[in-house]
UniProtKB/TrEMBL annotation:
InterPro entries: MeTrfase_7, MeTrfase_capping, SAM-dependent_MTases_sf. GO terms for biological process: methylation. The keyword Transferase applies. It holds the Pfam family Methyltransf_7. GO terms for molecular function: metal ion binding; methyltransferase activity. Keywords: Magnesium, Metal-binding, Methyltransferase, Transferase. It comes from Turnera subulata. This is Jasmonate O-methyltransferase. PANTHER family: S-ADENOSYL-L-METHIONINE:CARBOXYL METHYLTRANSFERASE FAMILY PROTEIN.
């Protein structure tokens, strides 16, 4: 499986598109908003003298959430500038120091205008950037003009297709890096999942599971370590000194029995495929030869990798529990969903996320039945 060719959210705006099935991801972004605000506020206090702040959202996808992190960043910059320029009772206060003191920096902070923002949307080339720039960006600019008027500097949005496991930007060109639900996807299916005799090592599974051999666990772990180290190394060259980075990705947890190997939804999909193989609807060999390029690392392992790579200091490292049917109401408490409706909700957004990978291996003809089985 060439991951760069098959890993993308389902495009367009149809029934099973990511555009119409990404409320869960929206919830994750909003759940982590305080961390994003804290990082951007600290960045602003140190970098508002810059004429332009360059930022990127890595793994942006193409749904209504694509520009949500940018809006949260703009709100934080607006709030920070307002606090720096807020009105107060008249006070005459003299600043005294020797002539060599940097008075310019002091007074520029007190009368700071918001800088321009250059915001890059990054994802693999298969991402539906057309929907973003055709359907989302015009409305975003309209909202920005109506609600922010001339309080902020100009905002420029551009696409940067490519894998974030390699270099994407010039040295020292980024002030802020954001990624939500992207880094648990690997750059490739790990090597070593087939024996020297051509036998599948993770037989009957499509991801790490309780019965996966230790060699499979090691192969996945090694691939994640290689990829995440490459991610950090690439960003260390691109991010300026004092820049910030906020990463959110699905992980594993020893504190939650359901999350020891990551998410149980992958296991549920595998169980459906097993049933279809038992019924002769797909070849068992097709199931045995398929492995997802997904790894859910633990918080301690992530911390160790960041410290080992050495380019970044950790300001906050937190585990956040999110249920798979989170945000099914999307804030509308009047809606009542039974377990079947919630199952359909999870099935639809998992289809939007995984169909490109599954269809490339098993064929698109089984997708309807597969995801109907997932939560019938």
């Amino acid at each position: 499986m060439e991951v760069e060719q098959v890993l993308y959210m389902k495009g367009g705006e149809g029934e099973y598109s990511y555009y119409d099935n990404s409320l869960y991801q929206k919830y994750v972004i909003l759940k982590t908003r305080p961390i994003l605000e804290e990082a951007v506020t600290k960045l602003c206090l140190e970098s508002l003298q810059e004429d332009c702040l360059s930022m990127v959202d890595m793994g942006c996808s193409s749904g209504p959430n694509t520009l949500l992190p940018l809006w949260e960043i703009i709100e934080t910059i607006d709030s920070t500038c307002s606090k720096l320029n807020q009105k107060a009772p008249a006070i005459q206060f003299f600043l005294n120091d020797l002539p060599g003191n940097d008075f310019d920096t002091v007074f520029s902070k007190l009368n700071q205008k918001a800088p321009a923002i250059q915001f890059f949307l990054n994802d693999l080339p298969g991402n539906d950037f057309d929907t973003v720039f055709r359907s989302l960006l015009p409305n975003f600019y309209d909202k920005l003009e109506k609600e922010k008027f001339d309080k902020l500097g100009p905002c420029y949005v551009a696409a940067m297709p490519g894998s974030f496991y390699g270099r994407l930007f010039p040295d020292n060109s980024l002030h802020f890096v954001h990624s939500s639900y992207g880094v648990h996807f690997l750059s490739q299916v790990p090597e070593g999942l087939v024996s020297e005799f051509g036998m599948p090592m993770n037989k009957g599974n499509i991801c790490l599971a309780k019965n996966s051999p230790q060699s499979v666990h090691k192969a996945y772990r090694d691939q994640f370590e290689k990829d995440f180290t490459s991610f950090l190394s690439s960003r260390s060259s691109e991010v300026i000194s004092g820049g910030r980075m906020v990463l959110t990705f699905a992980g594993s947890s020893n504190h939650n029995p359901a999350c020891i190997y990551g998410t149980g939804v992958w296991i549920a999909i595998c169980d459906c495929l097993k049933d279809m193989a038992d019924e002769g609807k797909i070849e068992e060999s097709m199931l045995d030869s398929f492995n997802l390029p997904v790894y859910h690392s633990s918080a301690p392992d992530v911390e160790q990798l960041i410290q080992r790579e050495g380019s970044f200091n950790i300001a906050r490292l937190e585990e956040i529990d999110v249920h798979w049917d989170a945000n099914v109401e999307d804030g509308n408490q009047d809606l009542v969903f039974d377990k079947w409706a919630r199952g359909n909700y999870v099935s639809s957004f998992m289809r939007a996320v995984t169909e490109s990978m599954l269809a490339s291996h098993f064929g698109s003809g089984i997708m309807d039945e597969l995801f109907h089985r997932l939560f019938p």
